[in-house]
Amino acid sequence: RANLAVNDDFQIDKYFPKVKFDYILSVSLLTHLFPEDVDLLFENVSKVLKGAYFFTIYPGQTGGSIGLHYFDKEWIKDTGKKHGLLIEELEGEYTRQRDYNIIDTYNSRLGQFAMKATKIKKNGR
């Protein structure tokens, strides 16, 4: 059964109350979000995540115009940490355009890097 809800506030727990997710995946989503929306996304992902959140970014100075946003990797990591998420870069390289194997990180044609967020545990990791 499909479990997909589309909304503009990222309130995942509103649509799936009391559900914790093993994995959350977004490919090329942050590219279309303003920094304040990324902050809201991380806040809400943190509420429902029990496993790992995989996502892609275009690295660069944080900001951009409508339709394409770049994010400084340290800004992404700091924003995630603010919401209890440890964000790490994944390693590897895409070999062809539109190859969505998220474990490979750098797409040399599109310039996207993959990241992985997990909940920060009490001991700091």
Furnish the topology, listing elements before pairings:
Elements: H1 12-15, E1 21-26, H2 35-48, E2 49-57, E3 63-65, E4 68-70, H3 73-82, E5 85-89, E6 93-94, E7 106-107, E8 113-119
Parallel strand pairs: 1-2, 6-7
Antiparallel strand pairs: 2-8, 3-4, 5-8
What can you tell me about this protein's structure?
With 125 residues, the protein is α/β, with parallel strands linked by helices. The protein has 3 helices and 8 strands, in the order αβαβββαββββ. The strands form 3 sheets. It has a 4-stranded mixed beta sheet. Strands 3-4 form a two-stranded antiparallel sheet. Helix 2 (35-48) links the parallel strand 1 (21-26) and strand 2 (49-57). It starts with 11 loop residues before the first helix and ends in a 6-residue tail after the last strand.
